[in-house]
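Obj: model holo form, ligand = NAP.
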Amino acid sequence: MNKKALVTGASEGIGYVLAKRLANDGYAITAVARNESHLQRLVSEIGPEHSYLVADLLTEAGQNVVIKAVADKHFDLFVNNAGIAALGKFTEISVERHVNVLRLNCEAVVRLAHAYLKSAKDGDALINVSSALAFMPMPALGVYSATKAFVTSFSESLWYEQRQRGVYVMGLCPGMTSTNFGKNNGANDLAAPSFMTQTPEELVENALCALKARKKPTVISGLVNKIFTFVARLRTRKGVVATMGGRG
Ligand SMILES: NC(=O)c1ccc[n+]([C@@H]2O[C@H](COP(=O)([O-])OP(=O)(O)OC[C@H]3O[C@@H](n4cnc5c(N)ncnc54)[C@H](OP(=O)(O)O)[C@@H]3O)[C@@H](O)[C@H]2O)c1
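Output (holo structure tokens):
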């Protein structure tokens, strides 16, 4: 085992499946999240050669735990996956919650990407997990979809800058993925028709294929999501937001 990967938000959902798959592919994993018992369960499943860090990435102290880890150890792959959302009408949700969405989905991503890329070497890779909503402003998830537009744009610029030194940056755009994301973020009605929903395993497979190819700055997972995002880019912004809001 000579490659190392750090995955944030690895205690469940997409990050958990990704960490398990990367461990199976020969990476030594450092898993990051807040829930220690979930992280312990992951390490007990993938083996004692893997490790975890308990860190709340909403806090500077938590972000610094990860920043220190990348300063102390070289990681061939770094995955900014942890993310949250606030579902509901903008003014009906506290501003503190909206700011937390910004802090985790944008500020933590920027600070951790900066720390990682400063010491990254030729051949290394950074994956920032964005969303298909990066291309489709979503009423009732307005701050969340805006943070993902930020992550995709940011990742594209980093892809361009970093490829000159042999470091690959990917903005990964999942569509609806069957995890507890809705439930974890206070919504039980995020369900979509099954043809629109991928399993985290399918998403991870697509992400790792794209990581192997190291070509695209933005990776949209799955044919349905590729079609939706393509059509969204052909339509007017007004038309897209009306459709997403249910009036188009
Ligand atoms: N599921 C979808 O449909 C979907 C679609 C598009 C994009 N995405 C994106 O994919 C990523 C993963 O989503 P998911 O579906 O796997 O969500 P999830 O099942 O809710 O998992 C989120 C992960 O992030 C961690 N996390 C949350 N707050 C954190 C904090 N303050 N500090 C550190 N870690 C924190 C959670 O661990 P702890 O609670 O233990 O901290 C958990 O491991 C997110 O960036 C999300 O925006 C998801």
